[in-house]
Amino acid sequence: MATLAExxxxxxxxxxxxxxxLLRLTASWGLLADLAFSDLLLMAPTREDPETLVVLGQxxxxxxxxxxxxxxxxxxxxxxxxxxxxxxxxxxxxxxxxARIPAVDESVALWAVPVRAGDRVxxxxxxxxxxxxxxASLYEQAYLxxxxxxxxxxxxxxxxxxxxxxxxxxxxxxxDGIILLERDGRVEFATPNATNALHRLGIYASPEGRSFVTLxxxxxxxxxxxxxxxxxxxxxxxxxxxxxxxxCVPLLSAGEVTGVLVLLRDVSDLRQLNRVxxxxxxxxxxxxxxxxxxxxxxxxxxxxxxxxxEEIETRTALLxxxxxxxxxxxxxEVLSREPGEEVVFDEIVSALVMLVEDTVLALxxxxxxxxxxxxxxxxxxxxxxxxxxxxxxxxxxEHAFVDFGGPENDHVGVVTLNLAVRGGEAIAEIRDNGRGLxxxxxxxxxxxxxxxxxxxxxxxxxxxxxxxxxxPLAEGGGAYARVAIPLGPRR
Length: 491
Prior knowledge:
The chain has helices spanning about 5-10, 15-35, 85-90, 140-155, 190-200, 220-230, 270-310, 310-335, 345-360, 380-400, 450-460, and strands at about 40-45, 50-60, 75-80, 95-100, 105-115, 120-130, 180, 185-190, 230-240, 240-255, 255-265, 340-345, 365-370, 375-380, 415-420, 425-430, 465-470, 480-485. It is of the alpha+beta class. The chain has four domains: about 5-155, Beta-Lactamase (2-Layer Sandwich), CATH 3.30.450.280; about 175-265, PAS domain (Beta-Lactamase), CATH 3.30.450.20; about 280-340; about 340-490, 2-Layer Sandwich (Heat Shock Protein 90), CATH 3.30.565. A hairpin with a 6-residue loop joins β4 (about 95-100) and β5 (about 105-115). α8 (about 310-335) runs antiparallel to α9 and α10 (about 380-400) runs antiparallel to α11 (about 450-460). The longest helix has about 40 residues, at about 270-310. It starts with a helix and ends in a 5-residue tail after the last strand.
């Protein structure tokens, strides 16, 4: 289904500012549909033929059964069959009449409200009236009265407001509770649900005829709407258990504020749920922070033990173990900032490069270059992949340039890490311009513990593939390693 913006561009000559105005209207018109107890359509003339109307939008009420079961958005209708809409377009005034809608078997009563943007009528808001169930109740009469006042604002171009939406998905709806304020701030009427919301705030006096101030309630959003004619939303709490959302919509006539429509919604459960989620996130973040600290403690102990060892082989093994522990700590450090089941792996790569540069002592100048990225990866994949990449980078920096001589050699070693996501796999390619692999090198029988760890991690834990080979001198020489990890469901 095409969006309103797409339909307006494809079918009408409405410019971008007008389309933005209509988008704000349709973001708020759930409020209008509920107040009118009716289906609403938004119609405009087409570019190709002004005598043809296109339906740009459609909304159904939440408090009344819909009259139009079919979706009319994008449908075209001859102007002559919608005389009431044509009158609203031509005269710029609200018109009433009837028409036969294709989705309804019989002729239905319509209200056509001109939608003004700037100094011209750009579309028509059509209210489709369903059959009356009997005399309207006092509340229904009050709702319709508010609807008419908002329709006058639509025709004047003062609704929707430019500042913000007043009826979005998270805003209170008509059924949540309504309070109508007069120009002087006194309550003209309040629905039972609104009264219950006030009870939750500890206000039990009858609100009719009193202002929020005399009721002992400070609602700055209502004061702002009355004073400046601007919509405003505010959440008022009572302790930690009660939270009521006030959405204040000013009602205007000839640019003057004549009252305020206040929609109330009890969001206590939602706020409580948010607090629970925040507490859980804080707990998970704290767990990762403590794991990172514990790993750093283990890393420090291994480093201290290496310094006390007199055997070179023992010292080297301890330092290698210390580096592997630190590479795992890097993942938990990132997770301690953004806990969850996924992690931004590119942040981990940056930390791994710094780790390798700080801990590996090379006899030759070596530069590590990173190209591309892997984006967001699952945490159960990030930790073993981080260890594997740290080992491969360390192996390249330590061993690729051994036979290139001492510091007097002007050959600069370069280790390139290329990262990409292709074909449902996370791919990491490590390439250096060093001496290459030995003629008897075999990944199946590696001579170093580090490559054994990488091979087992990639194949067993990550269920991926790894290959390592020398690059011919004709192609620049050096060594090449490629790791491919599937990103589908873990086995």
